[in-house]
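Deviation from plan, reported transparently: pyridoxal-5'-phosphate complex.
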Amino acid sequence: MPIPFVEPFRIKMVEPIRRTTREERERILARAGLNLFKIPAEDVLIDLLTDSGTGAMSDRQWSALLRGDESYAGARSFYALQEAVRDVLGFPYFVPTHQGRGAESVLFAALVRPGQAVPNNRHFDTTQANVLALGGHPVDLVVPEAGDPAADLPFKGDMDLAALEAFIGRVGPERIPVGLTTITNNSAAGQPVSLANIRATAEVYHRHGIPFFIDACRFAENAWFIKQREPGCAAKSVREIVAEVFACADGCILSAKKDAIVNIGGLVAMRSEALYQRVSQQLILHEGFITYGGLAGRDLEAIAEGLREGIDEEYLRYRVAHTRHLGQALVAAGVPIYEPTGGHAVYIDAGRLLPHIPPAQFPGVALAAMLYLEGGVRTVEIGSLMFAHDDPAGGETHHPPLELVRLAIPRRVYTRSHLDYVAEVAGQVARHVEALRGVRITQAPALLRHFLADFEWV
Ligand SMILES: Cc1ncc(COP(=O)(O)O)c(C=O)c1O
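Because the crystal trials were delayed, the predicted structure below was used instead.
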C-alpha cells in the first residue's frame, strides 16, 4: 500500500476560525450582493478564495522579519533578496514591487504602447487588465486541450506553438513588444507548462526578436510537475529545473504571494541592464525606490527566505498531493472537477454540474454562493463573470470555454480534514442542484468587474 503523504511541518501557532449558522450566512450573503469578495473574512469558515498572500510563513520567515533593514536606500534586506533572486531565479537585475500586479504594471509601462499585442498562454485577470490599460491587446494562445476538463494530459497549460507562430506572422513582430508564458497557468485551471514547451516558446519569440518574460508566480509548483511528468526530468532536482526554465527567458514577473509563501510582495527580474533602467523609472514613479519597491525591508527578508523554502522538494511533494486529495474527495462526493488537478487549486466544473444555468446567468457565481451558504466555504468563480466580454462590433457576448469555480488552497494553512469538510459541503450542494437558479448582475464596474459587482438570484 502506498504510504499516505503527511504535512512536512508541525503547527506552532493557531488562529481560531468561526462557524456561522445558515441564517447568518443568508443575511451576510445578501448584504454582500452575493459577491464573496465583499464578505468579511471572519464570517468564512474555510477560505479558498485564493492561494495568494494567504500562506502560513515558517518560523524562519518570521525570524527573518526581525532582520528587516528599513533604510530608504540600499537596505541590507534588498541585498539579501538580490542574492536569493540570483541564486534561485538566476537573473542579474531585479526590482521589488508591492505584489504581482505592480510588477506587471511597471514592466508593461516600460514596454507596451497603444495598439501593440502581448501574447501569453493565458493571461491572468490583472495581467490582461494591465495590458488593456496601456491600450495594448492581450492575446491568449493556450493549447486547445486546456478547454477539455476531462482530458488526462500532463501539460494542459502549454502554449499552442503553431498558433503563436501564426499570430506573430499575422500581426508582425514589430507590434509585439514582449511575449509571455504563465507558469502554472492559473486561468487555465492551474495546469503546468512543460520545459520543452517553455524552451520552444522562447525559441519562437527570440527568432522574431521579441523579449520573452515568464509570469512566474507558481514557478516551483510548475517545476515539481515537470520533474514528475516530463520525460527525462525525473532525475533533475527542482532547483535545477527552475534554473533551466528561467535560463530560457529574458526575465520574469512574479507575485511572491504564491510560491515564495509571503503575505505581500512581488518583483520583476531581468537580464537586460537597459530594460532595468527603464523599469526603475516606472518603479520610482509608481511603487517606490529601487531597493524597496513599495515593500518594507522585513518583507524583502521574508521573500528571500520564501524563495528557497518554496523549492523544497518535501514541501512540494506534500503541496501537490494535498491538492490532489481535495480533487479526489470532490470526485468521490459526486462533484465534477477539471482534471488532472493543478498545483494550487481544484476547479469545479460548474458548467457540467449546472447545465440548466446558461453562461449569461453565471453558473460559477451561483455555485460559489451555494458553497458559502451550505458550509461557510469561500471560493471564486473563474468563468463568464471574470472573462466574458462584449463584441466590440456590437455582436454577441463572447463567453470563455469553461465555467469553473476555483478552490484555491492557501499554503501550509489547512489540514486534510479541513479539505474533507469542503468536499462534504460540495457533495451536499451537488445533490440538490436542480433547484439552483442563476444570478444576474445589478451593478458592476467596467474593469475587473468580478471584484466589485453585485448580483441577485434570477
Ligand atoms: C498567474 C498570475 N499572475 C499574476 C497575478 C497577480 O499577482 P498579485 O495578486 O500579487 O497582484 C496572479 C495572482 O493571483 C496570478 O495568479
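The chain has a mean pLDDT of 96. We consider this an acceptable substitute for the interim report.
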